[in-house]
Amino acid sequence: MAHLSNPLLGLTLEELTSIALESGQPAYRGQQMFDAVYRQRMESLEEVSTLPRDYRAHLSESGWRIGIPLIDRKFVSGDSTIRYLLKLADSETVETIWMPDGDGGESGDGSEAGNELESDATAPLPDRWRRATICVSSQVGCAVNCRFCFTALLGVKRNLEAGEIVGQIAAVLRDQAVEPLLRRVNLVFMGMGEPFLNYDNFMKAVRLLVQGVGIPESRMTVSTAGIVPRIHDFGREAVRPKLAISLNASNDPLRSEVMPLNRKWNLAELMRAAREFPLRARERLTFEYVLLVGVNDRPEHARELAELVRGMRAKVNLIALNPGSELPYQTPEEERVAAFQRTLIAAGIPAFVRRPRGRDIFAACGQLKRTVEIAPAV
Ligand code: SAH
Predict the structure, then answer these.
(1) 190 CB less than 6 Å from ligand 1?
(2) What is the pLDDT of residue 270?
(3) Is any atom of ligand 1 closer than 6 Å to the C-beta of 198?
């Protein structure tokens, strides 16, 4: 293992406070470390000038470091999406996506939460985005074998620690020089991996992001492929993001074909968990549905989907397949996607089409497989 030292990133205020107390420091040193790590997102202990110099030295001699992931590569799309390849302490890499101006606005990216005044109206050009969304990974690779997703081809290497999840956001905010207390930043846990198969680390990261970084939970959305027991657990959390469920098919045979996970938790169980999910005031569930030509994109599928979702406080986000040569599916034409959307809307189901972001740099949904064989940005 290449872990030569321990990261402070990922520790709670209580944990940081006990580190301070154990070395005879006053308890408020814990808060100072917490602020340095999460609020100021400092990169190294030397920068933390709120701590006495000799205590900083003591911390590093005892093997502590901050632990923000390194930016290994950075790819910039023609639509201004940026794909970051971040390197972790053991040299594994994960991808994190920066999307100025959300992911198309409508759609489970947290952008519709509240109607607060946009706080960045005075931001200097050229970065006058109204909001930005960071798409965060939860595992190195993924263990869920969705047939249309590239990340599945990697298999799962390991879970990310809470600090590695928060660290992605810290690294990107630093690189973009963005302060989420002043600018509107949404988080979607929709990158590599299945967050609900790394539940405890994911939830710890959420609490640190709310309490430490200062991003409200109402601006976060987590997407699951349908790990039903964790959906029940998630509903009981005091602090939690909004929930999106990757449905992707309107009946069991079809869903088991495109998402073999459906054989473990079928649509009846999944939809029961979704219906029982305790929504907060004005909150809606999101269902994602990736359209695959000739497989799940016919009018009868739209009608079947409408019946599944009927009566729920929910919306459907349609995603045209982001294509790739290793995948046995094709991307539908825009008109076919629009027709599917119209059928849903006619059946009374709110439906949105998600604009693909960063397809040219392999940053779009389902494309995250740590591609490096395209020119990185300079
Ligand atoms: N594992 C979680 C989090 C990833 S979210 C989940 O499955 O929900 C990634 C989203 O992208 C999912 O809704 C998934 O259905 C979708 N997706 C996967 N592969 C895709 C592809 N090739 N094109 C478009 N969307 C895809």
Answers:
(1) yes
(2) 98
(3) no
